[in-house]
Specification:
With 425 residues, the protein is of the alpha+beta class. The chain folds into three domains: 159 residues, DNA methylase specificity domains (Adenine-n6-DNA-methyltransferase TaqI, Chain A, domain 2, Alpha-Beta Complex); 92 residues, Helix Hairpins (Orthogonal Bundle), CATH 1.10.287; 142 residues, Adenine-n6-DNA-methyltransferase TaqI, Chain A, domain 2. It starts with a strand and ends with a helix.
């Protein structure tokens, strides 16, 4: 893979049999820009129509960088929308780039898809997008989508973005962005290689989605008692019983040193983590790291929780359970479940199943906060200890599979990031 020497634009390492300097072109010289529409979601549907439409939100969340219309779920423009004035040049063509010109964060501003297949259908670029059509013989098919993902280009786009709550870019500023490109055959080689990495990433994402959906279905079946386990002697387990959570364990709320902004409470060399909501939302079943760590003084003023305990968030993102993978302290936005009289693994899945139930204690659009009384008096239905053990073991095996796929996905994404840095430095 080439590592670019930015002084000479000649790669020091590259695919075999390629020589010569890479060329610099400005975005505005490489492409022509065409008119897009400003149709909102209200003007779109997923049922019927003659023309499909790209909404910038789908570029951010749904579409692949190499956009194949046959494989994407794209809305139609409603039949009552008059398209008579739309110029022929504004209809998308294979090879076009569609760029999201608005985003709430720098990481997504200017996110781009390259149209590689239209399947003979009509497509328009819509709200908050630019339509860039490369000039002949500038880009090989499938190369530009990855070129604009490179840090060299991303950094320029982030630099030209303007705004506070919502960031935006203009065609004028985007036209000044510099693109460094090799010959068309080398572009094709690079594009094919990166497409193969993307395919692996997409396959892993699909696997992850399927296993997560499978687990969700199992949780529903198990906790509605549609799916029951049996002991080895084939005698049915007893009926599930209604209990209050507070009767199954001791529930204690965290506490915070005050003022929390004081540096005396923190020590980056400490081994005791300070758990924040963001740490939990980024983790899976077990919390393995935190962004901050507490000093001895901070530990004294907070609620200490040993490794292996089960905690749950009760403010902001409420109801998310997680095991502590190391010693931590929790503030009053969490509770810890101690002295459990039920299986701890089963307890985790029980809390995971009822996670969304906690929102019944708040009003729509208002942040919900829980307390120990609410959590303690919440009623749940539980099986015998033996069935709890069997359920916990079974669901843990599903989570282990999900964790392995997640790890492979993260490794593939990191590999791609490294390759992009090498290719387009």
């Amino acid at each position: 893979m080439p590592i670019m020497n930015t002084n000479t634009l000649i790669p020091t390492r590259r695919f075999p049999n390629f020589t010569g300097a890479w060329k610099v072109k400005k975005y505005g010289d490489a492409c022509n820009f065409y008119t897009t529409n400003s149709l909102s979601r209200a003007n779109l549907n997923y049922t019927s129509g003659k023309v499909k439409n790209i909404h910038y939100g789908d570029i951010h969340k749904n579409f692949q960088a190499l956009f194949d219309l046959r494989k994407e779920h794209v809305p139609f423009i409603n039949s009552n929308v008059n398209l008579a004035k739309v110029k022929k040049t504004s209809y998308c063509q294979e090879g076009d780039l569609i760029i999201a010109d608005a985003s709430e964060d720098y990481t997504a501003i200017g996110k781009t898809i390259e149209i590689i297949a239209l399947n003979g259908e009509k497509l328009l670029a819509g709200l908050h997008t630019f339509l860039a059509r490369p000039n002949p013989n500038v880009f090989a098919k499938g190369f530009a989508a990855f070129l604009v993902q490179s840090w060299k280009v991303r950094k320029q786009i982030m630099w030209i973005a303007q705004g506070t709550k919502v960031l935006g870019i203009s065609i004028k500023s985007l036209s000044t962005v510099k693109l460094i490109t090799p010959s068309l055959p080398e572009q094709q080689k690079i594009g094919n290689f990166l497409a193969s990495i993307d395919q692996r990433i997409n396959n892993l994402r699909q696997q992850l989605h399927l296993w997560q959906r499978y687990k969700k279905g199992l949780l529903q079946q198990i906790f509605s008692r549609q799916l029951r386990f049996k002991p080895a002697n084939s005698v049915n387990y007893p009926k599930w019983e209604v209990k209050q959570l507070g009767k199954l364990c001791q529930i204690q709320r965290g506490s915070s040193p005050r003022p929390i902004s004081s540096p005396q409470w923190f020590n980056p060399n400490s081994s005791v983590g300070w758990v924040r909501i963001s740490d939990v939302t980024k983790s899976h079943r077990t919390l393995l790291k935190t962004q901050q760590y507490l000093s001895d003084k901070g530990i004294e003023k907070s609620k200490f929780v040993r490794k292996g305990n089960l905690i749950m968030s009760i403010c902001a993102t409420i109801g998310k359970p997680i095991f502590t993978g190391f010693d931590v302290c929790i503030h009053d936005g969490f509770v810890v479940f101690n002295n459990l009289t039920i299986n701890k693994i089963f307890m985790y899945y029980l809390l995971e199943k009822i996670e969304k139930r906690w929102y019944k204690y708040g009003q729509h659009g208002i942040q919900v906060n829980l307390n120990t009384t609410i959590v303690s008096t919440e009623k749940v239905v539980i099986p015998s200890l033996a069935e709890q053990q069997q359920i916990g073991t079974f669901l843990s095996s599903i989570d282990a599979k999900i964790a392995r796929i997640t790890k492979r996905l993260a490794a593939s994404q990191a590999f791609k990031k490294g390759i992009l840095q090498q290719l387009f430095v």
